[in-house]
Amino acid sequence: MSADLLETRSQALEATAWGEKFRFIQPRNIVFWIYLWMCGVGVVKAWQMFAPYSGYFGQALLVAGVVSVISAAVWTWWFRHIDRYERQPVGLVLTGFVWGASAATFTIAISGNSALGSLYSKLFGQVWAEDWHAGLSAPFVEETAKGIGIVVLLALAPRLVRTATDGLLLGAFIGLGFQTSEDFLYSVVGATQGFGAHQTDGLIGSIALRAYSDIVSHPLFTALFCAGVIYLIGTPAQPRRIRRGLALIVAPILIHGVWDSMLALAGGNSSIVLVVMVGDIIFALTALWIAFVWAHPRESHFVRDVLAPEIESGVLTDDEVTAAGGWRQQRAYVRAAQTRPERRQRRHIVRAALDLCGDLAVSKGLDSPEVVEARNEITRLRHGIAAGSQSSVGTSSA
């Protein structure tokens, strides 16, 4: 392999820190102790809030907890699925999730929202505060509380939080933690309405409402916000982009504010509420798509740098490395195949190329047993395509 290509690979792995481990216990890092204190305070406040309901409302709390866990598991599977390149260490992901579920929710957001609500009532009156409190407090307080989480992760793992994609994915898990606690909180509120006379009915209604509203919720908001923080701060792998950073920080605040103020904005008109809701969803999904479009070229560039020596050695082709760099490139590569089995095998090759990229990251570019096995798997898949193509041609000729 070319020395220049190997050096470029080494530089890419150094810049991204792909494959490195996360160490949570850092007694010499003041942020570690701040994290423990903030999350500990959140856990204590959550216990103080829910413990009085554990007797009479025990069944409702259990059901709400189970539903919250299932919801979190489904979202976790999805977020890990779209983590296309080198996946973040599980420990780092859990650290972000716990921040969102405890510190951001119970230590900061609940107190901050209550304080702003009280202030709005005193300044503008109770009626105005009821209409606009949610839309003019939660977006600022909650997005800031969750956004602090990515700064904490940057301080705990500066070599692992490097790109806008890292901000998007870790932000999504921070938001998922917040959403899980919020869903549980609202489910309990629903179960306790009417002095608990119809716990199940109230709980089911709350769960259904939260499941619907979670389509545009905290994982999306926080993913955008945290990617914006990465752009705003800049890292060795991500040059500072102030305009992008500000845009991605403002966007979720605006989306969140409109979502929480739909009834006030529409004046109670259900038709206008529907229009505002659809418009906000479209804007939110568009903003998320733009964020991934902005982040993609940087990650794709690093993938090519890591896999370029494999092209020279004949393990991968240029088209396969290009396909590994993005969903759009992968679709084009797969659709160019002649037969369905070949398309299926091409998908496997792209996945195997990404696995090879991950193994190379772990081994720091060395030929570890995992790297050798990944290369052998790619060769096997390619021979399978060739055999399948020849079989198809032979059948057609016959």
From TrEMBL:
Tell me, what is one Gene Ontology molecular-function annotation carried by this entry? metallopeptidase activity
The record's listing under InterPro entries reads:
PrsW
Q: Which organism is it from?
A: Rhodococcus globerulus
Keyword field contains GTP-binding: no
What name does the UniProt record give this protein? PrsW family intramembrane metalloprotease
Asked if Transmembrane is a keyword of the record, the answer is yes
Question: What stretches pass through the bilayer?
Answer: 30-50, 56-78, 90-110, 215-234, 246-266, 272-295
Which Pfam families did the record assign? PrsW-protease
Task: Write the record's keywords in alphabetical order, separated by commas.
Answer: Hydrolase, Membrane, Metalloprotease, Protease, Transmembrane, Transmembrane helix
